[in-house]
Every structure is written in C-alpha cells, then in structure tokens.
Design a protein that fits this description.
197 residues; 7-stranded antiparallel sheet; 6 helices
C-alpha cells in the first residue's frame, strides 16, 4: 500500500540523503544528485517489496480458512476446509493438525495443544473435557476449549465447533493488533539513534 511505501522514505538518514541531493543539484553536480536519488529510491523500493512479502506471508500463515479439517458429519468422517465449518460440527483432532475453529472438547485421549500463537506459552497445554471454567477466564486457563490457529501437539480428541472465521479468538486478537500501531523494535530505535548521530 501507499502507507508502506511512504514509510520507506521516513527517517533521518533518508532525509539527509535527499538534502544532499538537493545541495548537489544546487551546486550543479547533477551526477551526484542522480546517484544519491537512485540509492534512496532503490532502497525504498527494496524495503517496500521485502516488507510487503513478509506481511503477505504472515497473513497467509494466519489464514486458517483453507486449512483441512477432519469432521464427523452424519456419522461419517470426512475432510472439509475450515471455511466450510459451522457451529455444531464435530472436529476430529490428531497430532500435527491445526485447529480450524474455536471448539469445546467432547472427548480426549492425552490431548495437548500448542497455544503459543495466542498465549505466548512455549509448552503445550493439556486439554480435557471434564473441567468447565467461567467464560471470563483468560484463554490460557480454559482447559475445555480449543482455538483456531493452535496446533495439536499430541493425543487425539473430539470437539464441537462453537465459533468460526471472524468470531474466533484468533480473529479478535488479529483485530486488536491491527487497530494498534506496531511498537518500535529496540534495534529500530538503536538504528534511528545511530542514524541521527
């Protein structure tokens, strides 16, 4: 987008280079001005393409709508896409599969889920259908619930879909993160400080 392209031309080093090219033009040194502008434009285009690709890959990784899901429908196991799931579908869970929707557990056998994409917790979380907690409990303290985008680490289970697509917890987290500006990384602050000096 234009905002991403414009972002490439912010920052003190870029402004200094643009100022340098203006001074070069003022002193009739056109070759230096063109070379400096070419470096600034080339750097901006390269940054725009690289950041655009990174954002696209992140969105593809977060998009669970095309992920396959094993379900039990009309007493038969079948594979569908996550986009075709509806509340009430029964998911069949096995190791390595991505959870395609938010769901409440019905039965488990040594089920553990990697919820790091939502909670940041690095260890898989044990899940079981027998202990219901309040809906106000934080995500990491809901052992009977599964969330879209998390991964089955081990064990098997069955769960009933309760939310899909934009109604999932992962979608809410994405919406919250999209509505806030990204904080500046420490390395970015250091580079900006170094560029200023």
């Amino acid at each position: 987008s234009l905002a991403l392209l414009a972002h490439q031309f912010r920052g003190l080093p870029v402004r200094l280079l643009l100022g340098s090219s203006v001074v070069s033009l003022g002193s009739r040194n056109v070759a230096d001005a063109i070379a400096t502008l070419a470096v600034v434009v080339g750097n901006g285009v390269l940054g725009f393409v690289t950041e655009g690709q990174a954002e696209r890959h992140i969105h593809e990784l977060m998009d669970t709508s095309r992920a396959p899901a094993m379900v039990l429908r009309d007493g038969r196991e079948s594979q569908v896409t996550a986009a075709s799931l509806v509340p009430g579908d029964v998911l069949l869970l096995s190791p390595g599969h991505q959870v395609p929707a938010d769901a409440r557990l019905l039965a488990t056998e040594a089920l553990a889920i990697d919820e790091s994409s939502l909670t940041g917790e690095s260890l898989p979380v044990d899940k079981r259908p027998d202990r219901v907690v309040a809906a106000t409990a934080v995500i990491g303290e809901r052992p009977t619930m599964l969330y879209a985008g998390t991964i089955v680490s081990e064990g098997t289970g069955r769960a009933m879909v309760v939310a899909t697509g934009a109604h999932t917890e992962a979608a809410r987290v994405q919406l919250l993160s999209a509505s806030r500006s990204r904080p500046q990384a420490p390395v970015e602050a250091e580079l900006e400080h170094l560029g200023g000096r």
